[in-house]
Every structure is written in C-alpha cells, then in structure tokens.
Design brief:
153 residues; globular; TIR_dom; NAD; four-stranded parallel sheet; alpha/beta
C-alpha cells in the first residue's frame, strides 16, 4: 500500500475547478495523490481499480454529474468493497449536492435524475445487479463515515 489519496470525481464537472484547487493544496503540502488525468475515456477500469487498491484513502467527491458516469459509480462500488475489507478509508465530499440526495437518489434532485438516467442505459442482462450495487455503495456512505470516526479516535 502507498500512502496515497485516490480522487474519485466527475472529471467534466470538477477537474478544472474544485479538484485542481484541491490537488494544488495537496502538492504544496507534499501529500501523494492519484488523479486519472492520463486515463483515456473508454479504457478498462482495471488500471483505476489497481490505483484504488494501492491507496490508503479515497476521496469520493459527489457532484450533480457524479452519478451520470458509469466509471464513477463502478469506482464507488470498488471503494466500498475495500472499505468492507478494512483496506481503505473513504471520505465523502458533497460538492453542491446534499448528502441525503446522494444516499437516496430520487428524481426530485439533479443527482437522482442523473443516477436514474445512467441506470436506464445499463443493458437489461446486468441491469438489476449493477444498479443494486451502485445504490448499495451510495447508501453505504453513512456507515463509512462512522467507521472513519472510530479509526480516527
């Protein structure tokens, strides 16, 4: 394991504003981190999963567009699995999103509408399985925060 922070975020929405400021602050304070800036759209997620596994902390930066990315949602599922194994600390950050909207995506919020739009695009063969894992990972955040408090005490 590397003492590194993995950033999970919706690139189109946050890469050149919030995340760039955050990464600048990390660099100034000599904190190692990984951002998928060199990963091309459509590449296999296995390389990102390896980077998540190598990290000791992950920042899940939830924005309104986070759930319209299958990559983001699959990263979140992977992060949840690593938390379950005790191998990763996940810190959720809610960027212009209410935590309750991320935990329970409904069509009444932009986050929820984007989630369900992505869910509708999933092929019917894997649809129920994939959506269930995404929802479980989104809902899981509350318990992850509680686990973090125990680890930090």
């Amino acid at each position: 394991k590397v003492d590194q922070v993995f950033f999970s975020f919706r690139g189109q929405q946050l890469r050149y504003n919030f995340v760039s400021h955050l990464s600048d602050a990390f660099q100034r304070n000599e904190i190692k981190f990984f951002i998928d800036k060199d990963v091309k759209k459509g590449q296999d997620l296995k390389n990102l999963f390896v980077r998540i596994e190598e990290s000791s902390i992950a920042l899940a930066i939830f924005s309104t567009r986070y759930p319209d990315s299958r990559w983001c949602m699959d990263e979140l599922v992977k992060m949840k699995k690593l938390v379950d194994q005790g191998n990763l600390l996940v810190i959720p950050i809610f960027y212009k999103v209410k935590a309750k909207d991320a935990r329970n995506p409904k069509c009444s919020s932009e986050f929820g509408r984007n989630f369900w739009k992505l869910a509708e695009s999933v092929s019917s063969t894997s649809r129920k399985y994939q959506i269930a894992h995404w929802l479980e990972a989104l809902h899981y955040k509350k318990r992850v925060i509680l686990q973090h408090r125990k680890l930090l005490q």
